[in-house]
Structures are given as structure tokens and as C-alpha cells.
Backbone:
């Protein structure tokens, strides 16, 4: 009985590990674009800032390329990876959890059709549920990542640093807001994850098996790459507005009770952003988001599928 249970549990553990490893590789390759995207999304927030001499100046607006070049020139090239440690921690939990949850829902709870296909409506439910669950668990690491990404900008604006590393960031959040503070901004975080996962997992799974059933394309790297490109585009379109709201809610200063000083909720942030900056403000950082999601998805899915093949697991 023990050996049967062990054989049943091992594939789940191995799938979790493989998902986490593939996500780590993809995160390291594309992280500079994520940092650039985060800086762009908070650009224009508040309108002005106070520099080190006490003079209030208007925030400088930059595009994607100039933002990245500015980070390298003003802060150094390695600052493009500032906050990568909590980002990796996040993906170990988030990607490992969402991939395992989706596969369990597809193969067990929701189930395939008699012809072996996974209906579209089931793929929608499975991807959104698995994404929301994985992100809720990983939300504290995402909060730390966003705050660490903004430290370079704060120094340039003459503001004192808020955090000095991953451990200090975690302890500061707990000290100021308690354990609940680690889940500050979890609502827009989970909403974004559900939408991104809908675009990523659902699109990849649907496109891949559509190609295998209706074309002569084989289950190989070309099929995986084509499917991942589609999933990256759809994920960026669906997830960017929620990502902007998430970033702003998580990056705002908080009072002693952990309540935000700028936005009361994700809806409040959404309304204020649209009223103050227009609807297109919700798509700030779309290009770096897309440019990141496309290579991220490509790197992740190719790595993940090859790892599964090497480990003797069925193709996703």
C-alpha cells in the first residue's frame, strides 16, 4: 500500500519540481523586461516628486527602451536584476503550483472528453482556478519583488531606501502590517494571475492540441514554440490592466495598520488611474510585458516540455 501511494505521489512531486525549474530559467532570462515594465507602470503616479535637495520636480516620462537604458546608466547593469531573488521564490511556488493544479484539474476533477480532448470551457475554468490558487499562495513573494524593484528609482529621487534585501523586506512588511500585510494587494494580484493564466495555460493547451489534431505538425519543439508565442500574446493582452493595478496597489506607502495611503482598493486604483491618466494608462508597460511574456513563454514551455521528455513523463 505504501509503495502504491509513493508511486502515485512521485509524478506530482516531479511535475512540481520540473515546473519550478523551467520557470526559474525563464525568469532569469527575461527578468530585466519585468523590471522595466514595473518602472513604466508607476510612471506618472503622483505627478511630482521631491529630489535630494528638497526641490519638487515633475516625474520624467520615458519609453520602454529609454527606461531600460536609464537603469543601466544611472544605477548600473546589474540593477536590471534587482528583485530577482523573490521573483524566483515566487515562481517556484506560483508556477509549480499552477501547473500541477491545472494538470490535476484537466486529468481528474474536470476530466477530458471521450475523444481525449479538453473542452474549451473546462480549460477556461481550470486555468483561472489554478492561476488564482497559485498566486494567492505566492502573493507575499510578489509583494517583496515589486518593492525591491522600485528601490533604485527611490534612490534617484532622493528618497531613503525602504528595504535592504529579501529578509529585511519580509520582516519590515510583517512589522508594519502583521502577517496580513504579506497579502497586501492580493486581490488584484489574484485577479491578474487568473487572467494571465487564462491567456497562458488555456491558450497553450488549446492551441497545441488543436495543431496536433488538425494539422500534420508533430508534438515537437516547433509545435511547443508556436503554441507558446500565441499564449504569450493573449496573456499580455488580458493581464496588463490587472498588472498595472496590482503594481500600483502593492507599491503604495502604507500606514501603521497596513492600509494603503493612495488607494483604498483595486477598484479605487482602477478608477483613479483611468480618471487621472486615461484608459490607456491601464496598458502602461504593455510592450515590455508582451516582449517579456513572449520569450518567457517560449523559454518556459520549451524547457518544461524537454524536461518532461527527459524525465520520462508524457508531453503536457
Residues:
Amino acid at each position: 500500500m505504501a509503495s502504491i501511494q509513493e508511486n502515485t505521489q512521485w509524478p506530482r512531486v516531479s511535475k512540481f519540481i520540473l515546473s519550478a525549474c523551467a520557470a526559474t530559467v525563464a525568469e532569469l532570462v527575461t527578468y530585466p523586461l519585468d523590471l522595466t515594465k514595473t518602472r513604466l507602470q508607476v510612471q506618472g503616479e503622483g505627478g511630482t516628486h521631491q529630489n535630494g535637495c528638497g526641490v519638487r520636480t515633475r516625474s520624467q516620462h520615458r519609453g520602454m527602451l529609454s527606461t531600460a537604458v536609464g537603469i543601466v546608466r544611472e544605477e548600473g547593469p546589474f540593477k536590471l536584476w534587482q528583485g530577482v531573488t523573490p521573483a524566483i521564490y515566487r515562481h517556484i511556488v506560483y508556477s509549480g503550483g499552477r501547473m500541477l493544479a491545472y494538470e490535476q484539474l484537466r486529468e481528474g476533477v474536470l476530466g477530458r472528453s471521450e475523444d481525449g480532448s479538453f473542452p474549451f470551457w473546462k480549460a477556461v475554468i481550470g486555468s483561472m482556478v489554478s492561476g488564482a490558487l497559485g498566486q494567492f499562495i505566492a502573493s507575499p513573494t510578489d509583494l517583496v519583488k515589486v518593492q525591491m524593484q522600485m528601490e533604485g528609482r527611490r534612490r534617484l529621487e532622493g528618497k531613503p531606501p525602504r528595504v535592504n534585501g529579501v529578509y529585511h523586506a519580509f520582516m519590515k512588511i510583517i512589522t508594519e502590517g502583521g502577517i496580513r500585510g504579506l497579502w497586501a494587494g492580493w486581490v488584484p494580484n489574484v485577479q491578474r494571475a487568473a487572467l494571465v493564466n487564462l491567456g497562458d495555460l488555456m491558450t497553450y493547451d488549446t492551441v497545441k492540441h488543436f495543431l496536433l489534431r488538425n494539422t500534420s505538425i508533430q508534438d515537437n519543439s516547433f509545435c511547443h514554440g508556436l503554441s507558446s508565442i500565441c499564449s504569450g500574446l493573449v496573456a499580455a493582452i488580458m493581464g496588463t490592466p490587472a498588472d498595472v493595478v496590482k503594481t500600483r496597489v502593492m507599491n503604495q506607502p502604507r500606514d501603521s495598520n497596513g492600509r494603503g495611503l493612495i488607494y483604498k482598493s483595486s477598484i479605487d486604483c482602477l478608477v483613479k488611474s483611468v480618471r487621472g491618466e486615461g484608459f490607456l494608462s491601464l496598458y502602461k508597460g504593455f510592450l515590455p510585458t508582451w516582449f517579456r511574456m513572449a520569450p518567457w513563454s517560449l523559454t518556459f514551455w520549451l524547457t518544461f516540455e524537454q524536461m518532461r521528455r527527459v524525465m520520462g513523463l508524457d508531453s503536457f
